[in-house]
User: What shape does this take?
Amino acid sequence: MESVEAVIWWAGIGLLGCSCLSIRGKGSLGIPLPIAQDGLTLQVEKGGSLSRTLRSLQGEGIIQWPQILLAYAYWEGTTEIHSGEYLVPFGSNARDLIARLNRGEVTRYRITLLEGWTFRQALRQIRSGERIVQSEEGSNVSAAARALGLKEDEVEGWIFPDTYVYRSGTTDIELLRQAYDRMQKVLDEEWQSKGDDLPYKSPYEALIMASIIEKETGQPSERSEIAGVFVRRLNKGMRLQTDPTVIYGLGEDFDGNLTRTHLRQATPYNTYVINGLPPTPIALPGRAAIRAALNPKPGKSLYFVGKGDGSHHFSATLTEHNRAVREYQLKRRADYRSSPAKGKN
Assistant: This one.
């Protein structure tokens, strides 16, 4: 019985459409709708239909004769629409509107996670994204880690820094999981083309190294050279002695002024004190840093020191390094990001 009624209903729509389109509708389909200069924001809920959407727009005074538009869509085969948020531009006509709904041209938002951020910073950025739905799972680092199937103390570094595109209604955990999956994919891809004689027992150790490289330099051309220094030091059994790991280990206790006392303070991340790599990454490394960690530049340098302009001077011997320290560091008192420490090996 219902199917018969449906046939009768659609037949009625068809007859109405044919008559109306021929009389007044067809020409009006190309007339711009009364939309403001900044466009019309339209929300189609899940399970929403074209007929319901058109009736809603009629109630807002955007369209007239929704039956005519529905008949037009029926004959065009464009009655199926997609849920989501739409921005209908100023100047759009009824044909444009129906086509946009049928193609699912929903509004897309963007959010950027930066290289060198911590997991906590990335989570905060995601939750602040426009039209992001904040969930209980994403309310703090511990809950977010559990949602990803990780422990809180192993989640650092597992979010790939990039610009992500999402739809209105996306949850913080959905976007976080996308960034987590992306990091796993990138790490696996780069691991397949790794160099020889590396000190890493697993891709995770390469991720740790990449995070240190990411924090040590903002100069793209230096990444592989810095990686080479660290790899050679590990292979020789030397400590990494790199400031960013110390700073990460201090956590909220770090006030921006790194002191000699800090360098001697025992934490799991203080590479002036511990041997080998820290237990986890210290930041979100980008693909370039991961690639550098897995393909370090060959050479003999075992030390580097900041010049004060963002670049570094590399040295093969401690004597040469100490000379560079005097040249580049003792001439200035500004904060710097150091290499393995003066006088240590």
